[in-house]
Fold this protein.
Amino acid sequence: MPSPAPSTAPARPAVDPAVPPALPPLTAQAELLLARGVVPPEILSPAALRDAAAALERTAPAGALLVVHPRLLPPSGLAGHLRRATTLRGRSLERAGFVVVDMPDLDEFAPVPGVEVPDADVYAVAGLDRGDDLANWSPEEAEPTIAARGRSPLTLAEGVHWVLQSPDALARNRCFMTIGSRLRRPNGSYDARTPAVWISNGTGRDGSARRGAPKVGWCWWRNRHTWLGFASATGRGAA
């Protein structure tokens, strides 16, 4: 009996974890948001989203990220739309994103002074960088270095949008913090928690069913983590 023919199913392209994949055009990013049901029509109509993306695409540089303003799409609602393919015990699985249980105030984290988010329903973020070279720095240490490079740290909403559009922007030991968002206390000081997006190991309160899932959580302002860089951009703009 002849041997069975080898499978012709295309293999998933290899991804270099050191190089986050390039983003598609802004109009394609808008279509993904619509196809996935991320943007409810009562919040922003499909026509308005498509028009905004098309206008931004005429001026934004290649590789820019499309962002729906968090006043319309809070990060807590976006996180559940994240998806990540993983393999566990030889099985290929897709995990949904989630927010850690001890961050119920996620949507209260706002842009810090110096991070100018356009006052527009839809805007673009240019020059994304995951900040791998700053891994094992604390947020306190990384903040002035990002500024000295003429870059702006990503907000939490922007970071979640990035992973939504490009799940492979997260890789094992190459995830990122979004220190452009912080929570200000009533006395004017900042909460020591700083938001980040990484991959769950399925331990502790995450639960084993979330192993390999995209995770929105936090780390302390003065703590260092070898597996967390600091995502930043060169600028933001609206149509």
